[in-house]
Specification:
Elements lengths: L1 E5 L2 E5 L5 H7 L23 E4 L6 E2 L10 E3 L3 H14 L17 H10 L16 E2 L4 E3 L9 H9 L5 E4 L6 E4 L12 H5 L5 E3 L12 E6 L8 E6 L12 E6 L12 H4 L14 E4 L2 E4 L2 H14 L3 E6 L5 H10 L5 E5 L21 H6 L7 H9 L3 E6 L4 H4 L2 H9 L3 E6 L11 E4 L8 E4 L5 E4 L12 H12 L10
Parallel strand pairs: 1-5, 16-17, 16-18, 18-19, 19-20
Antiparallel strand pairs: 1-2, 3-4, 3-5, 6-7, 7-10, 8-9, 11-12, 12-13, 14-15, 14-20, 21-22
Helix pairs in contact: 2-3, 7-13, 8-13, 10-12
Length: about 500
């Protein structure tokens, strides 16, 4: 252990702790560019200089071990003066791009200049010109002039994805970031380099020029893309729909959680937000043999509840691992008893998996559903019973049975039913065939919890209002429960 003083405050830390980390534990912020807690230490940007008693020169806080009896000053005149010089040096060749730079508003050069710089520029020479707006892969653009060579992106591709697409080439003030010849920055986690680039050198093709960051609002959420449940922030802008796309979500960003996703998310999850506003069912619809007709909520709920209440045969319920724990709990209470046959049925086929974050189960709450007793067996037997006329109707939570299962098996079974109720957010073949279509909200439009494959229960928060007339499944289930005369306790309603 080492007992030291930082800005006059005492702290005891484990041996090997860096000064920057000890300061952070005291709530003292030391500026940093190259230092990132998830990467090895490079110690090359020098912005984290602090003054340490008995050391003749200022030292970098990110690569100096705490020692017993050390006296550190992050706020002395000498420390501040050194920082100002470092910033001036880092900005010597930096272009005056702020007005047209996508990073403006979240750029650490801008922020630190205002906080630690505030010097008058003394650089009158021609700045070194480098390549601008170069595509270095399917997701990322590089502006080499803006790069401060902190090497975070290089270390990310060496240490986290181990794909090593990036490197620093040339010498002195001609040094720049580049992809290796004949290669692209193309891996399943490529978008993270944009998050960790402290300046506007690496920008996201999907986000750049869509929205100034100061117009963004943020909600803490959980990625529904797979069973990992990476912690994310939804950045959205409901005031200014962009480029006529109608998209309200502008981007997703990782949210740090050391036990689940550390600082990272995969590209599939990052760009998965597009489904939020695409292909959505916006109004309740009833499909009769001779017509398809929109209906208001009270009426369609009355009709659906009547079908369920008056059913003479059994009812099959396809429960989805996309539902939250709270919605699953309501489903279990509402559809219990001999009349109902429930199955856990994934709307997404299994996909790729790696030994980092990505899981083959492309649902966020399979574990939660299993812990509540839902099982995925028995679907085959159900179709047999449909054909035998024992099943009267089906309740389907968004799954596209007609594409997920063999249509030669499903179509005849569906034809033998008297009715189908589809509760889901997106159009698919099943929603186009169901007799009652109840549009539901997506994860970004509601509150709840998912249980990830490790068994961690994680909360997600509403960012947006449900699109059109869609409603969260929890509300739909409660309204059905009222009509069916089932009392649901408040605890189960989430
Ligand atoms: S591109 Fe960004 S992350 Fe990479 S070295 Fe330059 S400043 Fe650092
Ligand atoms: S690993 Fe899974 S949960 Fe994490 S971002 Fe990717 S799809 Fe989403
Ligand atoms: S943050 Fe310490 S040298 Fe870069």
């Amino acid at each position: 252990m080492a007992k030291l003083t930082i800005d006059g405050r005492e702290i005891t830390v484990e041996a090997g702790t860096k000064v920057i980390e000890a300061a952070e534990r005291l709530g003292i912020f030391v500026p940093r560019y190259c230092y990132h807690p998830g990467l090895s230490i490079a110690g090359n940007c020098r912005i984290c200089m602090v003054e340490i008693e008995k050391f003749p020169k200022t030292q970098i806080a990110c690569n100096t071990d705490c020692l017993d009896g050390m006296v550190v000053r992050t706020d002395s005149d000498k420390a501040k003066e050194t920082r100002r010089h470092i910033l001036e040096f880092l900005l010597a060749n930096h272009p005056l791009d702020c007005p047209v730079c996508d990073q403006a508003g979240e750029c650490w050069l801008q922020d630190y200049y205002m906080k630690f710089g505030l010097y008058d520029g003394r650089f009158y020479e021609e700045k070194v010109k480098k390549q601008k707006a170069v595509s270095i892969g399917p997701t990322v653009m590089l502006d080499a002039e803006r790069c401060i060579l902190c090497s975070r992106c290089v270390r990310f591709s060496d240490e986290i994805t181990k794909t090593s697409e990036l490197g620093i080439v040339s010498r002195g003030d001609h040094s720049e970031i580049a992809v290796h010849p004949d290669r692209e920055l193309d891996n399943k986690y490529s978008g993270n380099v944009v998050d960790i680039c402290p300046v506007g050198a690496l920008t996201d093709k999907d986000f750049r020029f869509k929205c100034r960051v100061w117009y963004l609002k943020s909600a803490d959420s959980i990625c529904p893309g797979c069973a990992r449940g990476c912690n994310i922030q939804i950045h959205y802008n409901t005031d200014r729909p962009q480029h006529g796309s109608g998209e309200r979500v502008m981007r997703l960003k990782p949210r740090e959680n050391p036990e689940v996703n550390q600082w990272w998310i995969c590209d599939a999850g990052r760009y998965g937000y597009k489904s939020i506003d695409h292909n959505r069912i916006e109004r309740p619809v009833v499909r009769k043999p001779d017509a398809v007709q929109e209906m208001d909520w009270p009426q369609i709920l009355d009709e659906a509840a009547r079908k369920i209440r008056e059913a003479k045969g059994k009812i099959g319920v396809f429960v989805s691992p996309q539902l939250s724990n709270e919605e699953l709990s309501l489903t279990r209470k509402l559809f219990s008893g001999d009349r109902f046959q429930t199955f856990l049925f994934s709307p997404n086929p299994e996909g790729d998996q790696d030994d980092f974050l990505i899981r083959s189960d492309k649902n966020p709450n399979t574990k939660g559903a299993e812990l509540m007793g839902f099982k995925s067996t028995g679907v085959e037997a159900l179709f047999k019973e449909c054909e035998e006329g024992k099943i009267e109707g089906l309740l389907i939570f968004g799954q596209d049975l007609l594409s997920l299962l063999d249509p030669r098996r499903v179509e005849p079974a569906l034809n033998d039913l008297l009715w189908t109720v589809f509760i889901g957010p997106h159009h698919n073949l099943m929603s186009e065939a169901a007799s009652y279509v109840l549009p539901s909200a997506v994860y970004a439009e509601k509150n709840g919890t998912f249980t990830n494959f490790q068994g961690k229960v994680q909360k997600f928060n509403q960012a947006l209002e449900p699109l059109g007339q869609s409603r969260p499944e929890g509300e739909i289930l409660k309204d059905l429960a009222d009509r069916l005369g089932v009392k649901l306790s408040l605890a189960a309603t989430g």
